[in-house]
Specification:
Protein name: Transcriptional regulator, TetR family
Number of helices: 19
Pfam families: TetR_C_4, TetR_N
Strand content: under 5%
Order of helices and strands: HHHHHHHHHHHHHHHHHHH
GO molecular function: DNA binding
Low-confidence stretches: 198-221
DNA-binding region: 28-47, 245-264
Domain HTH tetR-type: 5-65, 222-282
CATH architecture of the domain at 1-146: Orthogonal Bundle
Structural class: mainly alpha
Mean pLDDT: 84
Shape: globular
CATH class of the domain at 1-146: Mainly Alpha
Oligomer: single chain
Number of strands: 0
């Protein structure tokens, strides 16, 4: 048995090295067998085919990385520190790790570009690793470090997409020599999106009106009133108007039940305030779509149009995400230059926002671009490759993504990561 396990480990190691160097297509079973010092037929005793070996090779590395990250978490207190360490761990692997860490990065690109991977047992190891991020986010919400209105699946995908783009910029097209120098900028953007705080620029979140615009600020009578209204939307959607109680809404909003009646006459008044204020907000935003006069509006429109334009050709998008974007050869072609040129307008909007004072002065355009592109890639895979959401859910998720990205560029965050 020990000898058999030794052979299997030798095959896995050989597969990891060969696949990482040559990719799935250009690798052969014979080459892997030769490096593992076994016969070709022995490989098929443990693995069904070349793809099975590739996915299993990544699975083993992911399990090792999972245990290593848990070790790094020891001695750290609080979800913010854990989140920062997880980001730092990814960047460190880009810059200084060799061996297993570099092999895993290359195998991840190979596996995630293969649709069959998402149906293989190896994918579960990636889900397990991603589960650490979900656990951190949940703890952060529970301990009131992170906002409680987040869709954790979306936030997780945005963060991992962000880190993917950082890896690609360093390892694939060598835009930067290292990524750890981006750590503070990365964490600042992430915390601006998900951190608790009331210093966000008005009208970043859908459904919250701009108090400086006449005729649109009626809904925002106070922070408490807005919290009650948002809580009622959640409770009414979940239980229905008839079964919902004012006490449940008050508890969700974090206010006393009597506080609700300072702003709304009764449950019906609260119910009908929702479409009234929402439609006012929609009218306000629709007018601004055709004549965006400030950088936040322009960024919001750019994000929406970018997603819609790319999504208009599902076949091309699927090919781009699975066969092109995660292929290192792409980054040495004219097509990659053309792809980068599609982001020139984004830089123009970001620069305008910083010059006008609408966006944070410390905003790093390149790092935000990675956040944006990573979010786009991961969410598009979620939508069109894995096909896990309905068209209506896509619209809701796009709205949240847009709000989070806008929040990232407008909200200042103190540096709380110096000791990570």
């Amino acid at each position: 048995m020990a000898n058999n396990n030794g052979k299997k480990q030798a095959i896995l190691r050989a597969g990891q090295e060969v696949f990482a160097q040559k990719g799935l297509v250009n690798s052969t079973i014979s080459e892997i067998a030769k490096r593992a010092k076994v016969g070709d037929s022995i490989i098929y005793h443990y693995f069904e085919n070349k793809e099975d070996l590739l996915f299993s090779a990544l699975q083993e590395l992911m399990e090792k990385s999972y245990k290593e990250l848990l070790f790094h978490f020891k001695g750290l207190m609080g979800p913010v520190s854990h989140l920062g360490k997880m980001v730092w761990f990814h960047l460190y692997q880009n810059d200084f790790s060799s061996g297993d860490a570099r092999l895993m990065k290359n195998l991840l690109f190979e596996c995630r570009s293969n649709k069959e991977f998402y149906h293989h047992a190896g994918y579960k190891s990636l889900q397990k690793y991603a589960g650490l991020m979900l656990a951190i986010l949940k703890k952060g919400i529970k301990e009131k470090y992170f906002r409680d209105d987040l869709d954790l699946g979306i936030v997780r995908d945005m963060i991992f997409g962000f880190l993917d783009e950082e890896s690609l910029s360093c390892l694939a097209y060598r835009e930067v020599d290292e990524t750890l120098s981006d750590f503070e900028s990365i964490m600042s953007l992430i915390m601006a999106m998900i951190g608790v705080g009331s210093d966000a620029v008005a009208n970043v979140n859908p459904g919250i009106s701009n108090p400086g615009v006449t005729g649109v600020s009626d809904a925002v009578k106070s922070d408490k009133a807005e919290r009650v209204r948002e809580a009622s939307i959640s409770i009414f959607a979940q239980k229905g108007h008839r079964k919902a109680t004012m006490l449940e809404i008050a508890e969700k909003a974090g206010v006393a039940e009597g506080t609700i009646y300072e702003y709304f006459k009764n449950k019906n008044d609260l119910l009908y305030s929702i479409p009234r204020d929402q439609f006012k907000e929609y009218q306000y935003r629709l007018k601004r779509v055709f004549d965006p006069k400030n950088p936040v509006d322009k960024l919001r429109r750019f994000i929406g149009d970018y997603f819609r334009i790319f999504s208009s050709n599902k076949e091309f998008l699927t090919i781009f995400l699975c066969d092109i974007k995660l292929n290192k050869q792409f980054y040495n072609t004219e097509a990659f230059v053309a792809f980068l040129n599609t982001n020139e307008m984004l830089y123009e909007i970001l620069n305008e926002g910083k010059e006008s004072g609408a966006f944070r002065s410390d905003l790093n355009n390149r790092v935000f671009r990675n956040l944006f592109l990573g979010s786009f890639s991961h969410l598009s895979i979620r939508w069109y490759v894995l096909e896990r959401v309905t068209p209506l859910e896509m619209m809701g998720e796009l709205s949240m993504i847009t709000s989070l990205l806008c929040r990232a560029v407008t909200r200042e965050v103190e540096n709380v990561f110096e000791n990570i």
